[in-house]
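Re: [ENG-882] Designed sequences occasionally contain unexpected residues at chain ends

Forwarding the minimal case from QA. Structure tokens:
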């Protein structure tokens, strides 16, 4: 009986060791996975919109069809396409906040249909990428989303008043993990939000990391 009990104890101890190692492995792999997931998403988007078409154009310019079996040609054309994209971005960066940049902004902001999309995307990206975020995102709050009983961090972008009751209605932006430039615009009564004690940088870090990197304390309940 003692041998059987000892074997069960050893088996339970071994199981706990294996379980703890697996959990520790998750915490090691998850940040790496999220980082590569974001990089992969960015690369796939860039490849679809720019790198792929440029590489295909280069192969045609070199007299080689897309079905050419040479992996070296494919690698060289893709590398050349990446260099072209980086060069274009570098040149575009030289004109940041210049008259040319303002002229492009003016054109896109005055094209019907395009102006709504362009201004919205520009405001979100500018808010998330530089100090303007502290001006565009006035407050950081917690709201019940996507279901009652669950809460998600949101950025207050503006506010208005409900016509019949006079209550303050907040327009909030709820970013998604791990890419905060996509998300939801929601309208919620001010009385239903909880003021979050995290600043903009801490909130973005928590969102991008999938909750792995968060401040030690959170104002989860309304005071």
């Amino acid at each position: 009986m003692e041998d059987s009990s000892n074997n069960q104890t050893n088996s339970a101890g071994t199981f706990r060791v294996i379980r703890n190692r697996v959990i520790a492995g998750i915490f090691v792999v998850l940040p790496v996975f999220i980082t590569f997931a974001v990089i992969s998403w960015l690369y796939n988007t860039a490849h679809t919109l720019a790198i792929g078409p440029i590489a295909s154009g280069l192969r045609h310019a070199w007299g080689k069809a897309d079905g050419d079996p040479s992996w070296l040609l494919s690698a060289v054309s893709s590398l050349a396409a990446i260099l072209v994209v980086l060069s274009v971005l570098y040149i575009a960066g030289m004109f940041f906040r210049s008259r040319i940049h303002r002229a492009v902004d003016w054109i896109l902001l005055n094209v019907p249909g395009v102006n709504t999309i362009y201004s919205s995307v520009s405001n979100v990206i500018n808010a998330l990428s530089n100090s303007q975020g502290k001006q565009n995102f006035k407050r950081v709050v917690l709201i019940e989303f996507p279901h009652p009983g669950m809460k998600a961090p949101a950025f207050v972008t503006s506010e208005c008043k409900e016509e019949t009751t006079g209550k303050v209605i907040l327009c909030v932006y709820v970013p998604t993990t791990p890419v905060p430039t996509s998300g939801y615009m929601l309208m919620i009564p001010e009385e239903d939000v909880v003021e979050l004690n995290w600043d903009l940088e801490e909130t973005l870090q928590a969102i991008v990391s999938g909750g792995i990197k968060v401040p030690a304390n959170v104002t989860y309940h309304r005071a």
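QA comment: On inspection the terminal residues look reasonable. Helices lie at 2-61, 71-94, 99-109, 114-129, 133-136, 200-208. Proposing we downgrade this to a documentation issue.
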